Amino acid sequence: MQQFFGLEATGQLDNSTLAIMHIPRCGVPDVQHLRAVPQRSRWMKRYLTYRIYNYTPDMKREDVDYIFQKAF
């Protein structure tokens, strides 16, 4: 998340990272407030697309691709 928002990627939860995390990023909140009756909580899209920009050096690319394919 730090790198995505142009911050130094330290992996530490510092004040700059916290400030970025409190800014809404899209129409779907990260955390939903509990309600007695859930309101519309489904995505409007049926098919999702994704792209992996940076693969981890700890795993083979093929393994990562396979895991993501199975997850979706």
UniProtKB/TrEMBL annotation:
Q: Which InterPro entries does the record match to this protein? A: MetalloPept_cat_dom_sf (IPR024079), Pept_M10A_Zn_BS (IPR021158), Peptidoglycan-bd-like (IPR002477), PGBD-like_sf (IPR036365)
Gene Ontology molecular functions: metalloendopeptidase activity; zinc ion binding
What positions does the domain Peptidoglycan binding-like occupy? 1-21
Name any Gene Ontology BP term: proteolysis
Q: Which cofactor does it need?
A: Ca(2+); Zn(2+)
The cellular component terms of Gene Ontology attached to this UniProt record, alphabetical and capped at eight, are: extracellular matrix
> Keywords, A to Z?
Calcium, Hydrolase, Metal-binding, Metalloprotease, Protease, Signal, Zinc, Zymogen
Source organism superkingdom: Eukaryota
Q: Which PANTHER family match?
A: MACROPHAGE METALLOELASTASE, MATRIX METALLOPROTEINASE
Q: What is this protein called?
A: Matrix metallopeptidase 12
Please give the organism: Mus musculus
